[in-house]
Specification:
The complex is a heterodimer.
Chain A (H helix, E strand, L loop, with lengths): L1 H31 L6 H19 L2 E5 L9 E5 H6 L1 H8 L1 H23 L9 H23 L15 E2 L1 H5 L7 E2 H23 L1 H11 L1 H6 L4 H23 L9 H16 L4 H18 L2 H6 L3 H16 L14
Antiparallel strand pairs in A: 1-2, 3-4
Helix pairs in contact in A: 1-8, 1-11, 1-12, 1-13, 2-5, 2-6, 2-11, 2-12, 5-11, 8-9, 9-11, 12-13, 12-15, 13-15
Chain B lengths: L1 H4 L3 H17 L19 E8 L6 H18 L25 E8 L4 H13 L5 E4 L3 H14 L2 E4 L16 E3 L4 H16 L4 E7 L2 H17 L2 E8 L7 H8 L5 E5 L2 H13 L6 E2 L2 E2 L1 E6 L2 H7 L7 E4 L8 H14 L5 H20 L4 H8 L3 E2 L7 E3 L6 E2 L2 E6 L10 E7 L1 H4 L16
Parallel strand pairs in B: 1-2, 1-3, 3-4, 4-5, 6-7, 6-8, 8-11, 11-12
Antiparallel strand pairs in B: 9-10, 12-16, 13-14, 14-15, 16-17
Classes of the chains: A mainly alpha, B alpha/beta.
Chain lengths: ~350, ~450
Amino acid sequence: MDSILIQLLNGLDKGGAYALIALGLTLVFGTLGVVNFAHGALFLIGAFCAVTFQKILTFSKKVLDPNITFFDAYIEQPYLELWFGETGLAIIDYAVPLSIIVTIPTMMLIGLAMERGLIRHFYKRTHAEQILVTFGLAIVLQEIIRHFFGANPIPTPAPDIVSGSAAIGTWIGLGENFVYPWWRLIYLASATVIISSVFAFLHLTTFGMVVRAGMFDRQMVAFLGINVQRKFTIIFGLAAVVAGVAGAMYAPILPPDYHMGMDFLVISFVIVVVGGMGSLRGAVAAGFLLGILQSLASMTVVSSLLPGIDQIIIYLVAVVILLTRPRGLMGRKGVMEN
Amino acid sequence: MSDKQNITRRQLIQAGSAVAATPMFFTKNAWAAESFANDPGDSATVTLGFNVPQTGAYADEGADELRAFKLAVKHLNGEGDGGLMNTMKPMSLTGNGILGKKVTYVTGDTQTKSDAARASAKRMIEKDGVIMFSGGSSSGVAIAVQGLAQELGVLFMAGLTHSNDTTGKDKRRYGFRHFFNAKMSGSALGPVLKEEMGTERKAYHLTADYTWGWTQEQSIQETTEGLGWTTTAKVRTPVGAGDFSQFITPVLNSGADTLILNHYGKDMINSLTQAVQFGLRDKQVNGKNFEIIVPLYSRLMAQGAGKNLEGILGTANWDWQLKDEGSIAFVKSFGSEYGFPPSMAAQTCYVQTLLYANACENAGTFYPPKVIKQLEGFKFDGMGNGPTEYRAEDHQCFKDVLVVRGKKNPQSSYDLLDIVKEVPRADVEYDASIFGGELGPYIV
């Protein structure tokens, strides 16, 4: 029983990451009509915002290591520790949560620059051309990251206070084997808050109402004298922020490396298709659903019956959905059905 | 009869020679016994190929290998401080290139993909005219290009490859491995595991699903079951899975008290980080502390795993902290050149380059069959790891193996491993026939 619950929780957690990326993808597709293959790179940049912030906080004074005499080897001591002692170390310990503060404006700026500088030139091009140019951009961005940070994953730990696991099983009387990492629980909670905030923003504000109206009929909204384009540009920035924060918070779960954006992008696109192109609710629902399915499929009892099923379950579901309901789970009739 | 009487002695000799020579027309390379691929002939230079991962998950390891190769070329050409050419014994190298020819090199990118590595090696051989090529950070790649080496008759001096298959069932006459293998890791780890963890444990394997993972899983399982441990489960994970949480959560309820991660590089960093996050190292199972073992790891991986690696046992081919004459000379040379110590991948690539060059000097030719015969059974010292031998039967080097442990409170980004034990070569040797395979012919 507890093994199923752990996998459910794991699926929700994984689904949270998928849903956050898929949500941004859907926002961009729904508003601007752009199939943005560079969206995974925004997740990557977010993760590297956390890495960079950590590197800044741990910028160290290098002292020659007296134990190594045959070449100049250094012992590293962070300046923050030298200047502020224990307080400095505590600030370093909270590098990831603190990095969110700089990630939000950074990602907004990157999003706006990307949309104004490149994406807007491809609004009227075919989806194939949009995919080609955004995929190329994603490759350029990941290679820039590799150039500056190398190819190896970079450890970006969560604060010590949440580095262990929560004894959920003990709390609810299911035994001590039902444990789950604190940071993953925080990630799941944060994903829920971010997704809810985006929906609230779109449904409870005038700005959101205009955006939703623009997604439904852009021309009509423009006829009413509203500058829809500017609002959509801001939405692109918002999608970048969502992806970036998702990436920064994911850094302690998966040490970031230059390829992590691509790893998530493919699955997220499948999720968008399963959820229904342009459907925000569909993207979120499909993200969580496929995360859970993938997790359950990797249970020993399942994988021993169907070896490798955990690797293909997402694509299998996508095939079934596309065959039986081409517009996806919650897609609008007529949108991307052919 | 009269016809026979008319045959002159000259005609008889001509006819006899023709008959004697006839089968030779149908034997490849029969007329030029020492005609071989990319013979440098009268050229003043000879070209080596360094085929390393310059992109992809092992790019950092590839970069370090490339640094080592460049240093080796420098030393072969008589530049720099000479590095291991000051300590290698016996040695025929003079610092005047190889056989008096200046050494040049070309590089290729394997991308850690067998097909890309093979294409790159083929380009080096057919277009750049390399006389030998080396490199790699994956057994899949090593096995793929080793096959190509045999087909085209150009030597491959393998870099980092740890699968038993490289010098086991997939061994080739034109392939040589200085690096140790999974079987040797198991043999080295066994006594330490027994001493530190006892004889009654339940092991759960997570294994990278390709040749290296399979052979390491098998070797470690043989070792641990030999100690009296039982194997609870062996789960194969896709290479580059990223998030391993779905594979780690079943461990919690499996009854296992030991997790063995047969992962390398990025996979190992991710799986270990996530295993620690799930609290495995804080668990008590079967009345014992839950333990994690990483049978193969390197300093570069330790940098990625950070403090998660603290206290975890594994094995290594070599470490820059060794205090033998050869290791000190190499670390000094590499450290002076680049400002940080070399990785074990760098050390094996540097040594392989020098060993090849030395074999050519000993053979007095670049002709591969003669160079191969010089390498087969070659015994040497002063290159790190103590007295070493290239076993003729499978082209596997035998030398001391290190059992290492992730260091607690490291003081710098490369001071990450403690050497627990230097396991003598005799303890990791095995019968060459156990893995099968055929080396193949000398002349191709």
